[in-house]
Amino acid sequence: MGQSVQRLDIPAKVTGGAAYVQDIRLPGMLHGRVVHPPRSGAKLESIDEAAVKTMPGVVGLVRDGSFLGVITEREEQAIKARAALSGGARWSGGTELPNTDTIYEQLLSLRTVDTIASEKQGSVRPSGAHLVEATYRKPYLAHASIGPSCALAEFRDGKFTVWSHTQGVFPLRQDLAKSLQVEPVAIRCIFAEGAGCYGRNGHDDVALDAALLARAVPGRSVRVQWMRDDEFAWEPYGSAMVMKAQGAVADGRIVDWQYELWSGPHGVRPGAPDGSNLFASWNLAQPQKRPLARNIPLPAGGSDRNAIPGYDLSNYKIVNHFIPEMPVWVSSLRTLGAYANVFAVECFMDELASAAGADPVAFRLAHLSDPRARAVIEAIARKVGWTNSEMGDGVHGRGIGFARYKSLASYVAVVAEVEVDRGSGMVRVPRATAVVDAGLIINPDGLINQIEGGIIQSVSWTLKEEVRFEQGGVLARDWASYPILTMPEAPIVQVELINRPNEPSLGAGEASLGPAAAAVVNGIANATGKRIRELPLTPERVKAALG
């Protein structure tokens, strides 16, 4: 307890050993590839079977409604056969995707289910209060797992065995059973770690792909590895979000806080009682119903996770405009709605501090009575040598972000140092510092790993990542069209832990992403005097803001 322990899985992962589901090889294993439709909901009208069946290594083709796949002896044969099969396939209909330039206007126009997440009615806003309004935007994000989704399946003696990097073997089994029209007891799901996940990428969907192909070759296992473009185009994304904030300050205090958010679902996973949440199941000759999307209730929350500020506010209202039917398939991405909400809440805190003429750290402390929250912010201010109302020099700056994840897990404060190239708009984050209170610490090294990884991924989301659409299709198909942070660009991260041996241990796996995003954006405002409220902070967007 309280001692760092070496992870047993690291040696194989850093030496190219067999560490992931992508590395599993079974005796006599076949390889499969699936032809996805050009658009969601498109109907497969015809295929050119003859051109594919005579290709080297082809064992069989599988067509079930608009589901289409090929099975071969070797993986490279499957890749070539899929290309030929795709070229000869004819589709009709389908849903066109939105253009990137209009996604936020579209979000605000869609049907919503409105709920008040939290509300407190205090005194009437003073007539002389300084009013501040801001709108923040976060784009659709991909999981961008380093290894595209993969699964293996075998159908033998009327029963299925499926190897998957799913995050829920029993819910997956439930949806597989519905889709394959067998009883759940006829399916065994075996978990095998995947090379990256971060929520729900394509891991559940490729499992059904593998099972459908394996059913066509009883007694032999089939490995299905999605290609990179499959993953980017057909995994469910993290929902785009819009957050509108209105606040007022008087005498250095927040006297009113109004916050609204618009978001799609963040929990579309297998296991729903009213259908199947596996993509291929909607395209079969006997399709499964697509379940009604539901928001995850508070206190953990889904779209409204961390929408309720952890500060002492006398008058506030938080409204969640939940969008159950989205034009883009969305589901769980690391932190669910917290990344966007903490980004918005913490940037708005800086904007209110500026309106009040207060230092961002002092302003936060003035609105915090939780001693553990105060201790985290005070500790990071000491660690980085924060000085009151410090200003950047036009190029260099630093910002702070803070949150208690889910309002019930770890407390995390992050200070990010930023450098802005005013000519190109390029932003670098050379260093980030975090202070964490996760209660009783079990494994310090493991906790630090989680905070470091979260900060690095958050910097990548904040500066680079965005799923773009054009003319009804997805533009993000590879690492060139969906860039992520590279190792030379990663910040140096320092983490200080506050151990509380008399307190329960708190979850920390996703706790640093929101604070890190806010710290970076606040740092850019500190450096340049310009506030940017739409992510990601690409060079083009930053340069435009700087004029």
Descriptive report:
It is a single chain. By secondary structure, the protein is α+β, with helices and mostly antiparallel strands. It folds into two domains: about 10-35 and about 45-90 and about 145-235, Aldehyde oxidase/xanthine dehydrogenase, molybdopterin binding domain (Aldehyde Oxidoreductase, domain 4), CATH 3.30.365.10; about 240-265 and about 300-545, 2-Layer Sandwich (Aldehyde Oxidoreductase, domain 4). About 25% of the residues lie in helices and about 25% in strands. The protein has 13 helices and 20 strands. It has helices spanning about 10-15, 50-55, 75-85, 105-110, 170-180, 205-215, 230-235, 340-355, 360-365, 370-385, 445-465, 515-530, 540-545, and strands at about 30-35, 45, 60-65, 65-70, 90, 115-120, 130-140, 150-155, 160-165, 185-190, 220-225, 240-250, 255-265, 315-320, 395-405, 410-420, 425-435, 470, 475, 490-500. A seven-stranded mixed β-sheet has the order 3-4-1-11-8-9-10. α11 (about 445-465) crosses α12. The longest helix has 20 residues, at about 445-465. The chain is globular. The protein starts with 9 loop residues before the first helix and ends with a helix.
How many helices in DSSP terms? 13
CATH fold node name of the largest domain: Aldehyde Oxidoreductase, domain 4
Task: Give me the Rg, rounded.
Answer: 25 Å
Mean pLDDT: 96
Number of domains: 2
Q: By helix and strand content, what is the structural category? A: alpha+beta
Helix content: 25-40%
Read across the widest sheet, the strand sequence of neighbours is 3-4-1-11-8-9-10
Q: Main β-sheet: number of strands, strand sense, barrel status?
A: 7 strands, mixed
Regarding CATH, which class of the largest domain?
Alpha Beta
Task: Based on the coordinates given, report the CATH architecture of the largest domain.
Answer: 2-Layer Sandwich
CATH superfamily of the largest domain: Aldehyde oxidase/xanthine dehydrogenase, molybdopterin binding domain
Total strand segments: 20
Q: Could you give the distance between the termini? A: 54 Å
Outline, from the CA principal axes?
globular
Poorly predicted sequence stretches spanning 5 or more consecutive residues:
none
Share of residues in strands: 15-25%
